[in-house]
């Protein structure tokens, strides 16, 4: 039996796709083995969101060939889609597959397994079919991702993703619900709906949207928690929240990418909201879901960002009081409008600004966590740490560690949140 190993870079969508490709190989009779071992086939699911992701993708491709020089190397994902020529030039790459047609990965391998090199990167910008990959189980894990949507039509001026993933394409709601039921029957109790731009779900198929999906998924037996991956801020307006507010399984964690807290910078980024509109949205969410964790992405050092603009961002971020934030330094992506913008910011200035914003966000995170000290929270425990503590997540995505004689893996238990250590709660199980 031939052995196949996978390596995933990047986002939850990539992780979902790797899981689905792994299932296609194992159901075709291949043995899935760890990446570090000598496999006959390696599948590298790449990312291109920043310059660093490209470099990391190339490193992993080379490492796979080192693991077994006689192996067959398949490179797929966003870097392969946007830079197939660069991938072609890496020694030992045999099959290049972009971000489409992965459902055919096994037959493509079997057709070309004796070919030195074959590339089938489709013209993603004119693709309108959803590449229907799906997953039938998550092994013993009780948490799972389900991909509901592909592509993005937003074209934020700094972002390469629309050129890697193409226009929006939604999965049919019935397929998503069927996969949710199937996973629930296999013991998955927490589902995260992922996509490149999940706010666009249903727009292209002119069918029901994300709110309708959540209302229907909320009725599925066996599902205890439903999470949303990163979502376009303006989606979560009053009308949307009114539709979903009775979904008792929806976790109160909303990741709304802000990117900048300055309207001038947002305009240059081609983001589709102002700071005032963004603030209204997060306040609306906090009114309906008082324990909600609002998390975000902030980009520092965007082309043309002046000291005054950056200070405006700092003031807004302080006012927004995020539960946590990912801080990114702007990374020029060839082929995006912003890469040609004047007044690019120096790496030293980006470093300085990310430190400043990080300190503001760290304080907001601690102040958010302090609100929950002494309260009880339901936790889904996932793993046992080397320290002997069990680690899990609350509904609003807080990490909790508890001690227990009982094996708590994949179990829900209520814990009293006793104290904060770094970014984690130390808790005590409530009998
Ligand atoms: S919304 Fe903007 S940042 Fe997000 S994937 Fe689309 S273009 Fe990129």
Order of strands in the sheet with the most strands?
2-1-3-4-5-6
The largest sheet, given as strand count, sense and whether it forms a barrel, is:
6 strands, parallel
Structural class: alpha/beta
**With helices defined by DSSP (H or I, 4 residues minimum), what is the helix count?**
13
Overall pLDDT level: 96
Helix content: 25-40%
Shape: globular
Compute the number of strand runs: 18
The ligands bound in this entry are: iron/sulfur cluster
C-alpha Rg, in Å? 22 Å
Q: What fraction of the residues are assigned to beta strands by DSSP?
A: 15-25%
How would you sum up this structure in a few lines?
This protein has 431 residues and is α/β, with parallel strands linked by helices. 33% of the residues lie in helices and 23% in strands.
Can you give a write-up of this model?
This protein is of the alpha/beta class. The chain has helices at residues 12-27, 51-67, 78-82, 84-88, 105-112, 161-165, 173-185, 210-217, 238-244, 263-269, 275-288, 307-320, 347-370; strands at residues 3-8, 31-32, 41-46, 72-77, 93-97, 118-120, 143-150, 169-170, 190-195, 225-228, 253-255, 293-300, 324-329, 376-384, 390-394, 399-402, 411-421, 424-429. Strand 9 (190-195), helix 8 and strand 10 (225-228) form a beta-alpha-beta unit. Helix 8 (210-217) packs parallel to helix 9 and helix 12 (307-320) runs parallel beside helix 13 (347-370). Iron/sulfur cluster (SF4) is lined by residues 152, 154-156, 159, 161-162, 196-197.
């Amino acid at each position: 039996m031939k052995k196949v190993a996978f390596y995933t870079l990047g986002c939850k969508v990539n992780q979902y796709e790797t899981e689905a490709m792994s299932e296609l190989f194992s159901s075709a009779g291949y043995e899935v083995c760890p990446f570090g071992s000598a496999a006959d086939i390696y599948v590298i699911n790449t990312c291109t969101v920043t310059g660093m992701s490209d470099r990391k993708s190339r490193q992993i491709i080379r490492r796979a060939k080192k693991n077994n020089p006689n192996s067959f190397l398949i490179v797929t994902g966003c870097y392969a889609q946007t830079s197939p020529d660069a991938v072609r030039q890496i020694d030992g790459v045999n099959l290049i597959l972009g971000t489409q047609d992965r459902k055919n990965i096994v037959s493509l391998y079997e057709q070309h397994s004796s070919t030195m090199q074959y590339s089938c990167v489709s013209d993603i910008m004119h693709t309108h079919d959803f590449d229907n990959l799906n997953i039938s189980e998550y092994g013993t894990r009780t948490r799972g991702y389900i991909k509901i949507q592909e592509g993005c039509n937003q074209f934020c001026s700094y972002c390469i993703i629309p050129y890697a993933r193409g226009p929006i394409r939604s999965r049919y709601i019935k397929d998503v619900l069927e996969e949710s039921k199937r996973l629930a029957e296999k013991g998955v109790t927490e589902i995260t709906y992922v996509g490149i731009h999940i706010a666009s779900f249903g727009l292209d198929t002119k069918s029901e949207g994300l709110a309708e999906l959540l209302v229907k998924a909320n009725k599925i037996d066996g599902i205890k928690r439903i999470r949303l991956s990163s979502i376009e801020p303006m989606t979560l307006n009053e009308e949307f929240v009114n539709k979903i507010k009775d979904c008792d399984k929806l976790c109160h964690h909303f990741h709304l990418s802000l990117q900048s807290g300055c309207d001038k910078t947002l305009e240059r980024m081609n983001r589709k909201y102002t700071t005032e509109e963004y603030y209204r949205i997060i306040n609306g969410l906090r009114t309906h879901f008082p324990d909600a964790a609002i998390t975000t992405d902030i980009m520092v050092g965007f082309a043309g960002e002046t000291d005054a603009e950056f200070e405006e961002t700092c003031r807004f971020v302080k006012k927004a009081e995020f539960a946590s934030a990912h801080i990114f330094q702007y990374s020029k992506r060839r082929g995006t409008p912003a890469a040609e913008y004047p007044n690019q910011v120096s790496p030293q200035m980006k470093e300085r600004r990310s430190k400043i914003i990080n300190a503001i966000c760290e304080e907001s995170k601690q102040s958010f966590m302090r609100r929950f000290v002494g309260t009880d929270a339901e936790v889904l425990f996932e793993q046992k740490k080397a320290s002997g503590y069990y680690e899990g997540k609350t509904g609003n995505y807080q990490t909790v560690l508890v001690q227990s004689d009982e094996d708590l893996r994949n179990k829900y238990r209520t814990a009293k949140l006793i104290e904060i250590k770094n970014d984690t709660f130390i808790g005590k199980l409530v009998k």
